[in-house]
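Contributing new complexes? Match this layout with S-adenosylmethionine.
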Amino acid sequence: MSGSVGGSARLLRDAVRDAVRTLSEAGVESAEFDAIALAACAGKTTTGDVRKLMIMGAPVPGGFDDLVCERARRVPLQHLTGKAGFRRLELSVGPGVFVPRFETELTAGLAIAFLQTGADQAEVHQTGVDQTGADQAEVHQTGVDQTGVDQTNAAKPRDGAQESGSNLGTVRSAVPRFEGENPTPSLGLRDWTRSCGTPVVVDLCAGSGAIALAVKDEVPSAEVHGVELSELAFAWAIRNRDDLGLDVDLRLGDATLAFPELEAGVDVVVSNPPYIPVGSIPNDPEVRDHDPEVALYGGSLDGLRIPLAVAARAAALLRPGGFFVMEHADAQGESLTSALRMTGVWQDVRDHADLNGRPRAVTAVRAR
Ligand SMILES: C[S@@+](CC[C@H](N)C(=O)[O-])C[C@H]1O[C@@H](n2cnc3c(N)ncnc32)[C@H](O)[C@@H]1O
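Output block (do not edit by hand):
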């Protein structure tokens, strides 16, 4: 128990109510969610049980007030709980690794939907910025919330992340028409496996391993590789892989040089590279003060130097007709898609929006 009032134990519901006020005053947008998640962490239970315990008049667990103080100082919730939900997975995170973001579930989902469902079966979450004249498609995404996203990687964790471990539910993606060696526009996993064997997937800039591990979790037949530059982040990725028991090849190294042995043989490359413009300072203290700089900044004033170098590596890794997915800042939708088109190595370059209609991920097909 943590405190007592007039000799009687302080009630959890009162402590949570006070915490919500404290966190709101500190500028935490998801104050109620965070307060309950912290109570669950302190009580070593679930958020669902916290809600029940609040109704039942249970006492506040020890350590709760300290966690609330830390959160009010804008230490990321995930650093306090040690966990971050990503699609169906619960990942371990902490200092030295980028906390996986809700919008990256869209990025991962585009790759997963491509592998699982095939093109023409997908409902599309797309901003209609296909400047190639390709068909426009409808946005459709469910079961999610997204808060606090600005033009940086500074998205807040979605509400419910800790509760559900979560997923993007029914997000299905825009999948490009195939040209060149793939005559079939919808080459879903079953057909793919029959015609090409095991799909090979590479995650460039793997961080905690979020995307690579989610792909392996949801497409178990895929051969998944990931590369990460930071030793600290790499250690978290290895820990997550081993804890989750997912067979993913993770390597420490530079994404722009990675996997020479896989060149021209990869089916899907997916990446959430650093992309914040150099000189921009993220608004949220959780990002500014706690995410590693190497995970944030894209290496140039427009933030696109590293993403474009990663895209060039993706082009070298992919087989003709292979699929590329890359997350970007919402302000980079047009500049990134234009830059990719100008290289001449991509076709069907399309941009995709998040739930708020903001462009957040590009897909493209490796030209022959
Ligand atoms: C925005 S974070 C994304 C991490 C993870 N993919 C995710 O979505 O949560 C970018 C990651 O790229 C890593 N990184 C930066 N430059 C890199 C490079 N040249 N090669 C490999 N990884 C790099 C950073 O250390 C960081 O972990």
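Reviewers usually confirm one structural detail per submission. For this one: The pocket of S-adenosylmethionine is lined by residues 98, 100, 104, 153, 205-208, 210-211, 227-230, 233, 254-256, 272-274, 294-295, 306 (CB under 6 Å).
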